[in-house]
Specification:
The complex is a heterodimer of chains A (99) and B (638).
Chain A (H helix, E strand, L loop, with lengths): L16 E5 L6 H14 L3 E5 L6 E5 L8 H13 L3 E6 L6 E2 L1
Antiparallel strand pairs in A: 1-3, 1-4, 2-3
Chain B lengths: L27 H5 L8 E6 L19 E2 L19 H10 L16 E6 L7 H9 L7 E4 L1 E2 L12 H13 L7 E5 L21 E7 L17 E4 L9 E4 L9 E5 L2 H18 L5 H11 L11 E2 L5 E2 L10 H10 L7 E4 L3 E7 L6 E7 L1 H5 L5 E12 L6 E6 L5 E5 L11 E8 L9 E9 L8 E13 L3 H14 L29 H35 L14 H6 L9 E4 L5 E4 L29 H4 L8
Parallel strand pairs in B: 1-3, 1-4, 2-3, 4-6, 6-7, 7-8
Antiparallel strand pairs in B: 9-10, 11-12, 13-21, 14-21, 15-20, 16-19, 16-21, 17-18, 17-20, 22-23
Classes of the chains: A alpha+beta (99), B alpha/beta (638).
Chain lengths: 99, 638
């Protein structure tokens, strides 16, 4: 089953956050910079845009950062309170089965 | 009249069934007319595609491929403990295995291009799924996904926010704006009483949900029922019946060919292959045109257990088989003459707060919502395609709930089937069920949602908190639909299926893909390594030159007396081993400027100022004398 922990999980131990920025009309570069700023504010790294989805980005913790509950809650608080973030969600591993 | 030298082609009963004529996808007539999927790219989103295998290599499309598990462009599967990563390769073979290569089998659309997106062989998140669904979406026309949430009869799951956004973005912007075609397998939870309306990929309006039937046309033991299933096609059945023959990987236990591909996993790629045939004859079909053509051409057939019901628009649907069996000849002939359906129109009711108890069977809770002409004026919606119901219901054992929806025509859809395995105490929170059984019916009228508790707990325990009705359809009228049905039937003779007949087909939009050329970790590591190597050697050489300069300088500083160059031995000269390099010296030239010049005595071929040329008269100033006459007169600082 996909979704089991294994090598290559995003970020540290699979932790990562997806965010939807609140000004998706902006030009790509401006959005990218805004994403960098939001990621920095949350103590994360901007891992880039989610495929073709305009305004959606994935943030991951810097390598080596301990995966502490406090850090997670800190990130949650910053993203929830950031005016540029319309939506955010911690990325969890999905269980998917071949049919 | 088509013949292939592929050794397993005769066993590929799903393509051409000699044992039970008619029990196949009816594709040979289409091949005879050179419709093989040419110009169409199908991507298998799975655990990888072994594109080096003989049956895949000729049709492989590296441009449409990617590996999201390793983050590199090559979707080759990785051998694993269970030797299970052959799934994607088998699906790819069903779609586009190359013909007449004396190897294994033949694909439904053997003229199409096949790509692979490896995403199932490792941790999978919502954002990764979203990337997969739109990866190379201007190159890949059809996404074949033979996977989904667990089919354990107790899971309620589907694409999360990003996955849903990507599916929607794909149908809007994919395939030059005609919309990506997402084909999904309906699920293998039959033994656990599962229903594919609890799977958000299967009951999405953006996907083509395909179920399976065995060689006898029956619902196999593993197959699931559901009201949102569009159609079925062949796959394996129980042990007595044949499975699907297709290409296999040749890693680990693989031999490159298998006769054991089964499950709804085997049905979805066959449907994807047939859709590729449709897109060859009509590339400008939109994602909804494809769904319509499936609804109009799938064939109902005799199966007493199938519980076929014909709706107000004349379409017959079964919870087991959707609108029936896919038939490649009918699909392609319909595609050939199809003109696009009107734009998608939708209507959403307000969120209807109820907070009503769900009674125990045989009693039932009924809630109604009337959709008036005025409600639909804005959207222009006249006839239905998908009907969705989003509900929040509390109940201590979710599997005891049964939800049924009645469209204004009275057409019944079992959208939430009871599930004995599902004991989840959290009920439903904004879960969306859907049905396609009212396709083509009038949208206006009263919709009735019936909720029952079929469990055997004594106290009635469920409460319907709220619900919302969403209608998807178009401005087509029932008359338009009937006209289209007649037109299609006139095309089934195949009279239009030749190159002489072609309807105008717009080329589509040029949509730039996200040029996210992300340097892959491997590339990055290589660059870092090469860079460090270069820097190291640069530093080393600079150091060596500096030190050798210093040594030379320290051995010879001549301020007062003449500079004595190391005597070049006659012998070295004769042997030609004398050292050619001499340090550059600064000489004072007649005008006082400094010129840097090599000692001409040993410099061969270099240009030297003409004052040193042999035929000059002796200059009046010692500085102008040729070097061999200088005899130490000259001060040199080296």
């Amino acid at each position: 089953l996909a979704g089991t922990d294994g090598p290559g999980a995003q970020g540290l131990g699979g932790l990562s956050w997806a965010v939807h920025l609140d000004s998706p009309e902006g030009a790509e570069e401006a959005l990218e910079q805004q994403a960098d700023a939001v990621a920095r504010a949350a103590g994360l790294l901007n891992a880039g845009r989610v495929g073709e989805l305009h305004g959606y980005y994935v943030f991951v913790p810097p390598a080596g950062q301990q995966r502490a509950e406090a850090a997670r809650q800190q990130v949650e608080a910053v993203l929830a309170g950031h005016e540029a973030v319309r939506w955010h969600s911690e990325q969890r591993l999905l269980r998917r089965a071949k049919r | 009249s088509v013949h292939f030298n592929d050794p397993k082609y005769p066993q590929q009963w799903h393509l051409n069934n000699r044992r039970s004529p008619g029990r196949d996808i009816n594709v040979t007539g289409v091949w005879e007319r050179n419709v093989t999927g040419r110009g169409v790219t199908v991507v298998v989103v799975d655990d990888g595609v072994e594109h080096t295998i003989q049956d895949i290599a000729p049709n492989y499309s590296p441009e449409g491929s990617y590996d999201l598990n390793s983050n590199d462009p090559d979707p080759m599967p990785h051998p694993d403990a269970e030797s299970g990563n052959h799934h994607g390769t088998r699906c790819a073979g069903e779609i586009a295995a190359a013909p007449n290569n004396s190897f294994c089998a033949v694909g439904v659309a053997f003229g199409s291009r096949i790509a692979g997106i490896r995403v199932l062989d490792g941790p999978l998140t919502d954002s990764m799924e979203a990337v997969a669904f739109n990866k190379h979406y201007q190159i890949n026309d059809i996404y074949s996904c033979s996977w989904g949430p667990d089919d354990d009869g107790k899971t309620v799951d589907g694409p999360h926010q990003l996955g849903r956004a990507a599916l929607q973005h794909g149908v809007i912007a994919g395939r030059r704006g005609f919309g990506s075609i997402f084909v999904v397998a309906s699920g293998n939870g039959g033994q656990h009483g599962d229903n594919c309306n609890y799977d958000g990929y299967a009951n999405s309006v953006y996907t083509v949900t395909i179920g399976a039937v065995d060689e006898e046309g029956r619902m196999p033991f593993y197959a699931e029922e559901c009201a949102s299933m569009l159609a079925v096609t062949f796959s394996g059945g129980d042990k007595m019946l044949r499975s699907i023959v297709t290409t296999d990987w040749d890693l680990q236990k693989g031999t490159g060919c298998t006769e054991g591909h089964t499950g709804t996993s085997a049905a979805a790629p066959l449907a994807a292959g047939m859709i590729a045939l449709m897109l060859q004859v009509r590339p400008c079909l939109t994602w909804r045109d494809v769904q319509h053509i499936i609804v109009f051409t799938a064939t109902q057939y005799e199966d007493r257990r199938a519980d076929w019901v014909t709706n107000e628009a004349g379409f017959s649907h079964s919870h087991q088989h959707g609108f029936g069996l896919l038939n490649a000849w009918r699909l392609v002939n319909a595609a050939k003459i199809w003109t696009s359906v009107p734009y998608l129109a939708s209507y959403a009711s307000p969120v209807l707060r109820e907070d009503k108890a769900v009674p125990r069977a045989p009693h039932a809770l009924e809630v109604l919502w009337n959709v008036s002409r005025t409600d639909l004026e804005m959207s222009g919606l006249k006839t239905l395609e998908h009907v969705a119901v989003t509900v929040s219901i509390s109940h201590p054992r979710r599997g005891s709930l049964e939800l049924t929806l009645f469209c204004p025509s009275g057409m019944m859809s079992l959208i939430g089937a009871p599930r004995g395995m599902d004991s989840d105490p959290n009920g439903f929170n904004d879960w969306t069920f859907s049905t396609v059984r009212c396709w083509g019916e009038r949208a206006r009228g009263t919709y009735r949602l019936v909720v029952r508790d079929v469990g055997d707990e004594t106290p009635q325990a469920g409460t319907l908190r709220q619900w919302q009705l969403t209608l998807y359809g178009s401005a087509w009228t029932p008359v338009d639909i009937r006209d289209r049905q007649r037109l299609l039937e006139s095309a089934m003779s195949g009279k239009y299926l030749h190159d002489g007949f072609t309807l105008p087909c717009p080329p589509g939009l040029k949509i730039p893909e996200e040029d996210s050329y992300t340097i892959t970790p491997n590339t990055l590591k290589t660059l870092v390594l090469v860079g460090s190597f270069t820097i190291f050697w640069t530093v080393y050489y600079m150091l060596e030159i500096y030190l050798s300069q210093r040594k030379v300088a320290s051995r010879r500083v001549c301020r007062s007396g003449p500079c004595h160059w190391p005597q070049r031995s006659q012998k070295a000269r004769e042997e030609g081993t004398e050292l050619e390099s001499v340090p550059l010296c600064n000489r004072k030239d007649p005008e006082g400027g400094e010129t840097e010049r090599e000692d001409p005595a040993t410099t061969s071929g270099l240009l030297v100022p003409d004052l040193l040329s042999p035929d000059r008269s002796a200059p009046e100033h010692p500085h102008h004398l040729p070097p061999d006459l200088l005899q130490g007169e000259e001060e040199q600082i080296c």
